[in-house]
Amino acid sequence: MGGAVEHRAQHANNTPKQVEVRMHESQLTSDEVHPRSPCLRMCDKIRGNLLLSLTVFGVIMGAVCGGLLRLASPIHPDIIMVIAFPGDILMRMLKMLILPLIISSLITGLAGLDAKSSGRLGTRAMVYYMSTTIIAAVLGVILVLAIHPGDPKLKKQLGKGQENDEVSSLDAFLDLIRNLFPENLVQACFQQIQTVTKKVVVENPTEEPTNVTDSFFALMNDTAATTTTEIKKKLEFKDGMNVLGVIGFFIAFGIAMGKMGEQARLMVEFFNILNEIVMKLVTMIMWYSPLGIACLICGKIIAIKDLELVARQLGMYMITVIVGLIIHGAIFLPSLYFIITRKSPFSFLAGIFQAWITALGTASSPTPTEPPLSTLSISSAHFKAGLV
């Protein structure tokens, strides 16, 4: 009995094992897979980045159509206004969403961080902002001294001018601090405070003569000046959103809400939903942006009276600005990104390419902040890897 069992065990061990091999259908065919043509790969890339491709196409078409329509000059101002009207609507829509976008994104981002992480992130962001600002300022001064974009003949024609000693660096710095802490948050959405100096004529106090001799000399010196001019400073509000005060308030609001924990869960959910709604609105507007940018560029080109004269006057200025942007954006900033994160900066720069094109077409500083925020979830991993 034992021998039979042992014989069966040996027979089972000698039996070859069956292995199931599954092959893909593409491997069963004898035909070789041919690589796709470059045209098809290019079409796939354009289809994958359709919005970016349409935006670039809008910039090109706006410049081309503007140049062609200049051949039909003179064009009535009303026709130019109608051509540029879609671009005006685009600018209005983008500016309309700046405030809710700042509020929702700041509160949503800071409410999810603890105090330690937000403090470390804020410190590093401030150091990064100050360092890049100093680098940009030094680079601008060097390029201006090297290229000399201005016309030296204008200085001889205009003269030295008048120096304005009334503007003080201390006043500008104190205005910056005042705007950081606005007294009225609603007013900060459309006004900011500024120190204004005015010249006031003040009469000098005159002493009454004590005797006849003094009265005689007072009458003889009647040509002496009895008034003086003094410079008085006062605070006035000027038009323009106080972005610094709005950002400062909502940063503090988001950090305080994050410290409350479970008690502020309902508010966190509210601002998360608000952020999603604003992002959907931004996405809808960005699909309209190719048409608006094309019309805006076309209208601006047509409105220029003498394009050759403007190009000749601003040619060196444009070269200076473009060279500075290339050096700062293509050398300094990617180098800082690589030093901090030890990652390739090209993937990060590709994520904000939409903002570059929007800034080129709209010539506005705040509006390009909206396109990258709609895709911030894609590049946030690269950002947090180096800062958090």
TrEMBL record:
Keywords per UniProt: Glycoprotein, Membrane, Symport, Transmembrane, Transmembrane helix, Transport
The annotated regions of Basic and acidic residues compositional bias extend over 19-30
Q: Which InterPro entries match?
A: DAACS, Na-dicarboxylate_symporter, Na-dicarboxylate_symporter_CS, Na:dicarbo_symporter_sf
Task: Assign the protein's first listed, main location to one coarse class.
Answer: membrane
A Pfam family found in this protein is SDF
Name the protein family.
Belongs to the dicarboxylate/amino acid:cation symporter (DAACS) (TC 2.A.23) family.
Supply the name of the protein. Amino acid transporter
GO BP, one annotated term:
L-aspartate transmembrane transport
